[in-house]
Design goal:
This protein has about 100 residues and is an alpha+beta fold. About 40% of the residues lie in helices and about 15% in strands.
Length: about 100
């Protein structure tokens, strides 16, 4: 089991910041149930961050500790992987009362 988690961590650490990873992308390392379990355990240990259902990202190490990757990078990569367009919506302006 350690070999699988080590292989997952090697892959995720080699990815650029904000690159999401899922079990589907790692099927060459093992079966789906083992991958799901290993990803879940890595997230519980803080080695990966859960970005959504079945989607994980690697935390970014800095001199102050680890932090989540930039949201813009994660959204950009997710939209590219899924072939979807993400549109930024500006919040409505507050109504001014006279």
């Amino acid at each position: 089991m350690e070999r699988l988690t080590e292989s997952i961590l090697e892959r995720t650490n080699a990815l650029p910041e904000g690159m999401p990873i899922s079990a589907k992308m790692l099927l060459h390392l093992g079966n789906r149930a083992a991958l799901d379990q290993a990803l879940s355990r890595l997230a519980r240990r803080g080695k990966l961050l859960r970005a959504g259902r079945g989607v994980y990202v690697s935390p970014v190490a800095s001199r102050f500790g680890s932090r989540a990757p930039a949201v813009e990078k994660v959204v950009e990569e997710l939209s590219r992987q899924r072939g979807e367009t993400v549109v930024l919506r500006e919040p409505p302006l507050p109504m001014l009362l006279d």
